[in-house]
Amino acid sequence: MALHPTAVGVDLGAIEVVCDARWLMSFAAGVPDERSELYDTTALGVHPLFPVAPEWELVMAARGAYGGLEPDEVRRGIHVEHDLVLHRAVRAGERLRIAATVTSVGRRRAGATQTTRFTATDSHGEVVWRTAMGSLFLGVELVGEPTSVGPDCPDQPSPPIGAPIAERASFVRPIDAHVYTECARIWNPIHTDVVAARRAGLERPILHGTATLARGVSIATELADVPLTSVTRVIGRFGAMVDPGTTITVRLLGRDDHSLAFDVLTADGRVAVADGVLGF
Asked: Does the residue 252 lie in any domain?
């Protein structure tokens, strides 16, 4: 089979989730980010990348709805791009509805690409966040021409980029993929199970891309002295895989009054998160 342009516009369904304080605090712990405001239940701050956690449930629920793809081809999908726009902060205890729609398909040498738009709304129908998640289905052909229904997110902030302004090394413990899995409630066995990882063609389990991105967001905001809870936009492209038991480096590459640029490097200098941008 193959991916077809008819996938564009497909409604992947919707779910309802309750973002209780326990989940919000656990996500922060799984990053890990130890800032006190992320655990103060009198006025709980929320890590800006938390939306990836409830979105994962919908990703799993929608796996059979990808137009034209066989189950084995769907399993070849990897997360390659992420663009999150926070319209407001998530509030502890609120119930949200999250819906997903395919908004574009394309091709690369490695396979077919697809962008899925997630929209979270509150009980009043007001948008809380929107996410454009880019996936690459390895070895899958796109039959037809690349197709899009339009832009998924507002124009991207563009802070000036140059030599690193600051950087910080961060050790990824051998258990960190397990901790993030349970705290975020994002379970994919390639991150915690050696057998599953090898069946997927990996030598060993790898850290989740969103875990790497979340740690990059935490460290980049600290390097720039920007309050974590002021972040309203998170953009990044996923590259090299991060092995637990190694050290990553987060680099602050530029900033202006409303945005900053960063990336994340693996222990051997490859780029794990490229083109990282935070709006605030």
From this structure: yes
State the residue for tokens 């990044």.
236
Single-letter residue type at 263: D
User: End-to-end CA distance of the chain, in Å?
Assistant: 43
The answer to whether the pTM exceeds 0.85 is yes
- 143 and 13 assigned to the same domain: yes
Reading the block at residue 202, the tokens are 């990996």
Pairing of strands 271-279, 259-265: antiparallel
CA distance 205 to 14: 30
Angle at 234 between CA 138 and CA 21, to 5 degrees: 105
By CB neighbour count within 10 A (0-12 exposed, 13-18 middle, 19+ buried), where does 185 fall? middle
Note the pLDDT of residue 271.
98
Q: What is the distance of C-alpha 93 from the center of its chain?
A: 22
- Domain of residue 137 covers 5-148
Mean pLDDT to the nearest integer, 16-33: 98
Among the candidates 148, 180, 204, a domain finishes at 148
